[in-house]
């Protein structure tokens, strides 16, 4: 593997080059420089006519893809939590509004209404279980 940064392979307008030596440490990517003109010098692309594409080591690409998938899952989880919170807030507002309306009609406060509903539920359960 050449570590001088010189082109390894020239095939038409594209040049594949290594990222250079760094004291025995291998870099995980190389640069691909492509030119839109077939007759131009691929080692020295003119401005506006080139693209630089980073090619990753397959293991590094897999790690980056896994990290990106985790970020996508996290964002989806946060979005779902916001949706659940909005639904829960809607039900809470509906319950509070109905409690206030019932209070205005009957004169019973919201805690008194809850106690009445609990007593009614207990009476229904005891009536149902007394037959068995």
Topology record:
Layout: E1 7-11, E2 14-17, E3 29-35, E4 50-56, H1 58-106, H2 110-130
Antiparallel strand pairs: 1-2, 2-3, 3-4
Describe what this molecule looks like in 3D:
There is one protein chain. With 132 residues, the chain is of the alpha+beta class. The chain has 2 domains: 7-56, no CATH class; 66-120. It is 53% helix and 17% strand. The protein has helices spanning 58-106, 110-130, and strands spanning 7-11, 14-17, 29-35, 50-56. The protein has a 4-stranded antiparallel beta sheet with strand order 1-2-3-4. The longest helix has 49 residues, at 58-106. 2% of the residues are buried. The model is unreliable at 1-22 and 26-40 (pLDDT under 50). Residues 1-27 are annotated as: Disordered. InterPro entries: PSII_Assembly/Photoprotect-Rel.
Structural class designation: alpha+beta
Strand order of the largest sheet: 1-2-3-4
**Total count of domains:** 2
Enumerate the spans where pLDDT stays under 50 for 5 or more consecutive residues: 1-22, 26-40
Total strands: the figure is 4
Q: What is the count of helical runs?
A: 2
Q: Alpha-carbon distance between the termini?
A: 86 Å
Q: Strand percentage, roughly?
A: 15-25%
Helix-strand pattern, N to C? EEEEHH
Average pLDDT rating? 75
The dominant shape is elongated
A few lines on this structure:
The chain has helices at residues 58-106, 110-130; strands at 7-11, 14-17, 29-35, 50-56. It has 132 residues and is an alpha+beta fold.
Q: What are the key terms here?
A:
alpha+beta, 4-stranded antiparallel beta sheet, PSII_Assembly/Photoprotect-Rel, single chain, 2 domains, elongated, 132 residues
